[in-house]
Amino acid sequence: MATETMLHEGRVETRWTLLRCRGLRSLVRGDGGMSTAEYAIGTVAAAAFGTVLYNLVTSSSVTGALSAMIGRALDGTF
Q1: Which residues pair with 50 in a beta bridge?
Q2: What pLDDT was estimated at residue 2?
Q3: Same domain for 43 and 70?
Q4: What's the pTM?
Q5: Are residues 39 and 72 in the same domain?
Q6: 59: which DSSP letter?
Q7: How sure is the predictor about 76, in pLDDT bands with cuts at 50, 70 and 90?
Q8: The pLDDT of residue 32
Q9: Element (H, E) at 7
């Protein structure tokens, strides 16, 4: 790597030092992951989906269909 010197914010630094510092900054400042607000919205959405799914599975029509299917499977008639 070239060891050319550069003036950066009043300091003379090598090109390698500048590139290394920029790389470290991008790792530290990266916006990977979710923030607290995104976690809260995701949790509320998951709870709402779970509630809808629970209500669907425990409804009388789905319960009757599942009972009939299990009954036919146990009787051996398909």
Answers
A1: none
A2: 47
A3: yes
A4: 0.45
A5: yes
A6: S
A7: confident
A8: 63
A9: strand 5-8
